Amino acid sequence: MMKVKSVDAGVGAMNRRKILQAAEKCFAQFGFKGTAVQKIADEAGLPKTNVLYYFKTKQELYVAVLEETLSLWNSRFDKATVEDDPAEVLANYIAEKMEVSRTHPMASKIFAMEIINGAQNLSGYFDEEHALWMKGRLAVIDAWVNAGKLPPIEGEYLLYTIWASTQHYADFSAQITRLRGKKMTKADFEDATRQVVKLVLGGCGLSVPESFEV
């Protein structure tokens, strides 16, 4: 009996993953209004009833995709403390966000469109959990400043700069491709990561750690 439950749970997790991946693709291509549940079901290769079994409404599924995007951006920075080296933490944070832009560009684009449209579907999760995360990270940056590990800087603007610099490679990939005449490769992303790290850390009066590798 326990074995059957285990198999059922595995199938459920697999179906949920397929639905979220299909929804991410559809929302990125057609937006929230232009995406029907049936379209997501067709993309996932599942009956519409299966999609609605795991997610009761299209909005519930859309919010799940948005929350998953925020979870993708989780990094070692989440657990950083005043005892850590800010250069190492920030360099790795930038590298991790650049990697997400490379591997999950559609998720980043959906999030960007939601923010541009007023973030109405993020009100609960975003205003509570993500705001709490932001408050905690600003406290760490302020602690680094007070400990003399960083020059006097506003942590809020530092984070905005990092987000803008890293998410740009996903959200504006079409612009980058048109200007370069070709899509960025993994090697191009690695080079871009090194440059963004150098620019951000240099602006903070920090040197790139010798241990840092992309």
UniProtKB/TrEMBL annotation:
<dbReference type="Pfam" id="PF00440">
    <property type="entry name" value="TetR_N"/>
</dbReference>
<keyword id="KW-0238">DNA-binding</keyword>
<feature type="DNA-binding region" description="H-T-H motif">
    <location>
        <begin position="36"/>
        <end position="55"/>
    </location>
</feature>
<dbReference type="Pfam" id="PF08362">
    <property type="entry name" value="TetR_C_3"/>
</dbReference>
<dbReference type="InterPro" id="IPR013573">
    <property type="entry name" value="Tscrpt_reg_YcdC_C"/>
</dbReference>
<protein>
    <submittedName>
        <fullName>Transcriptional regulator</fullName>
    </submittedName>
</protein>
<dbReference type="InterPro" id="IPR001647">
    <property type="entry name" value="HTH_TetR"/>
</dbReference>
<dbReference type="InterPro" id="IPR009057">
    <property type="entry name" value="Homeodomain-like_sf"/>
</dbReference>
<dbReference type="InterPro" id="IPR036271">
    <property type="entry name" value="Tet_transcr_reg_TetR-rel_C_sf"/>
</dbReference>
<dbReference type="InterPro" id="IPR050109">
    <property type="entry name" value="HTH-type_TetR-like_transc_reg"/>
</dbReference>
<feature type="domain" description="HTH tetR-type">
    <location>
        <begin position="13"/>
        <end position="73"/>
    </location>
</feature>
